Amino acid sequence: MTSALHMRRAAAEFGRAGFQVIPAATDYSEPRFAGGLQWVPDTLALDDAARSMKELVGTLVTEVR
């Protein structure tokens, strides 16, 4: 079981290590606001952006190996 954000990378890594992978992602992100409030900046959006950037870097590093 792993975060939905990095399921693809985690499954690939464990598969390369010889494990049989059965994906079971958790913590999917859902839209928090409806209407115009979705365009108002908040700290949760900043945290989501930081997590996404870290995952992007992790994916790039994994593919370079």
Automatic annotation (TrEMBL):
<protein>
    <recommendedName>
        <fullName>DUF218 domain-containing protein</fullName>
    </recommendedName>
</protein>
<dbReference type="Pfam" id="PF02698">
    <property type="entry name" value="DUF218"/>
</dbReference>
<feature type="domain" description="DUF218">
    <location>
        <begin position="2"/>
        <end position="58"/>
    </location>
</feature>
<dbReference type="InterPro" id="IPR003848">
    <property type="entry name" value="DUF218"/>
</dbReference>
